[in-house]
Amino acid sequence: MEISKIKAFNATMDSFIEQLLPELEEIYKDLHQNPELSMEEFRTAKIAADYLTQCQFEVSTGIGITGVVGVLRNGKGPVVMLRADMDALPVTENTGLPYASTKIARDEEGVEVGVSHVCGHDLHVTWLMGIARLFSEHKELWKGTLMAVFQPGEEVGRGAQSMVDDGMLERFPKPDIILGQHVMVGEAGTVGYRSGAILAAGNSLKVKLFGRGGHGSQPQTTVDPVVMAAATTLRLQTIVSREVAPIENAVLTVGALQAGTKENIIPEDATLKLNIRTFDEGVKNQILSAVKRICCAECAASNAPREPEFTELSSYPLTENDALATARVAGAFEAQFGDKSYETKPASGSEDFSVFGRNWHVPYVFWFVGGTDPVLYLEAKKNNQLNAIPSNHSPMFAPVIHPTLKTGLQAMMTAAAAWLN
Ligand SMILES: [Zn+2]
Ligand SMILES: [Zn+2]
Prior knowledge:
By secondary structure, the protein is α+β, with helices and mostly antiparallel strands. The chain folds into 2 domains: 298 residues, Zn peptidases (Aminopeptidase, 3-Layer(aba) Sandwich), CATH 3.40.630.10; 99 residues, Alpha-Beta Plaits (2-Layer Sandwich), CATH 3.30.70.360. The protein has 11 helices and 18 strands. An 8-stranded mixed sheet has the order 1-2-6-3-7-18-8-17, with helices on both faces. A 4-stranded antiparallel sheet has the order 12-14-10-15, covered by helices on one side. Helix 2 packs parallel to helix 3. It starts with a helix and ends with a helix. The structure holds zinc ion (ZN) (2 copies). The site of one zinc ion (ZN) has 4 residues, from loops.
């Protein structure tokens, strides 16, 4: 649709959105109180699938374990794929909200953990369900094919890939555009878009360093992996500071360093766990190869009996919005939101959203929807306290339902309309 038509389309849809909000608020609170860990989103998936069926979508379930795809064909026109992630996090919620989660579950290691939607994926699911209803009940306003995708396991970086591996590309129509959105700290009622990299690539590795254990009093009979790990950790910090160009952005964090059990035993090995965030494919590859080079060189310098072992813990690709498609979304946002839509800076978080676009070789656009109480947000901004607002993954993360619920619906609706006839 052209901008003038999008404006008319939005104006018509606006009253339908208002009517739908009470129902969606109930759905949101229910999802919020019933969060499920990554790749175990069975209840959430069923709620989404049943709702899509009610809305006359052709529904497929169990894709990549819990993934749901709904297709709504409505005449000739582009195929628009909309994606929502469904999983919650192993965090005990501490928002004090009347609808806060009190759920407890066992994580992959069998440890009992609190579970909550502190990344806001419950809102993503609610938004997409709402969009499905709006488009299915008002087919006279648009033409084309709408594909609603509910994805598992975003927080573990496996969900999108598991759907692709389960035949997603062969089983469903190839989209002309893939759209996704995330609730973030930001003034509620606003949307932030960006051409190019909007979210970082994230790579996590485990590196096991091998020494030779022995008595703490006889280091000459050993190869000390503690010293090896310490030297490696320090040297790894020279990658970003000394090898990456200063105009590039990158982070390398050694978040875990484990070795030994007792003060007078030199252990056999040590383990580092590290996390890397980058905004450029070349920089990412440069850092990954520097990590390997430094780890191997430090082991050789320590006379290690064998080379270190590298295990990938997770890998999130760069989320890099297509320039032309982003311009189209930005134009539609401008028509809908005026100065409440803005060009945002990239965020150092990561997403597996782009896995669909990368595998299908189609453009994708991802944007942020502000979820912070506007009064609170503007007050914090005025006092230079924005970093004090609990961010996604904090036990205190609590987006306000109004107007966030409506803004997300409008954003996704207007972006989809920019492609549909
Ligand atoms: Zn998250
Ligand atoms: Zn998230």
